[in-house]
Amino acid sequence: GIFGDPHVTGKPAGDDLIEGKRTALLALTWRNASSFERETIMKAFHSQTEISPSLLNDIRAIVDKRGRTAHEKLISSLVNEGLETLSSASLSAHAQDLLTVLGELLTRRHT
């Protein structure tokens, strides 16, 4: 992730950017970013192997400036809403459990 500790996540810092993952946090940041900030983010997406610490810090600053806290709250709220809806869906308990675990793995990884 952008803010993840490599010792916790097991991935290098900025790995999602190198892999070109358009995460929810980045998508929300992108909507509010200036064209210069978007160009900065795109530099990371076009990187093939690693991101310099200064570029990663620049992107972190952009995400913070463009509403990281509010965006993380929105993402969490939407995930909770989805999980609540899933709990009342007409699916088997096993299917609900699998989808709940999947939803949590995809959205609530340690950063």
Element layout with pairings:
Blueprint: H1 6-9, H2 15-18, H3 24-32, H4 35-45, H5 53-65, H6 68-87, H7 93-107
Unreliable segments of 5+ consecutive residues: none
Total of helices: 7
Specify the helix fraction band: 55-70%
Radius of gyration: 16 Å
Amino-to-carboxy terminus distance: 7 Å
Given helix and strand content, the structural type is mainly alpha
- The tally of strands reads 0
Shape: elongated
Whole-number mean pLDDT: 88
Structurally, the number of domains stands at 2
What does this protein look like?
With 111 residues, the chain is an all-alpha fold. The protein has two domains: 62 residues, no CATH class; 37 residues. The protein is built from seven helices and no strands. The chain is elongated, with a radius of gyration of 16 Å.
Give a nutshell description of this structure.
The chain is mainly α and 111 residues long.
Keywords:
111 residues; mainly alpha
